Amino acid sequence: MATKTPDQWFDEYGASHQNRINKLIHWICVPLIAACVIAFFWEIPTPALMKEIPYLNWALLLLAITTILYVRLSIPLAIGMLLFSAVVIGVIAVLERTSAVPVWKLALIVFVLAWIGQFFGHRIEGKKPSFLQDIQFLLIGPIWLLGFIYRKLGIPY
What is the pTM for the complete model shown? Predict the structure, then answer.
């Protein structure tokens, strides 16, 4: 993933995200999908060995791996994704305490609806989703949005 610069990845990803409606859909659906993936991993039962370490679960291991990949690409973008992930984990923790519906069921509903939105956006765009060309684009989508925010705020990445 680090063989290209963030801007090179963003340019390739952006080629199939030119339509303003598709972009708007992505602003909603990409963060929701990323949050749902974290929630799914959060809900996977942990073996006894992992339970010995407070807060260690599959979601945190997933986030550690993705953070390493993001750090190789851009430390500022990796920090932004860690902040996003921390917010998601906070929401998951609240939902675990307050929701009558298991978190994984809520995540599944949102995940399916968000992917329907994504494919609808690409139908409007008239181009296939980038990840069908290269699976790495599943990790690029969230930081593509973060890159927009950073540029708007004048934060170099």
Answer: 0.92
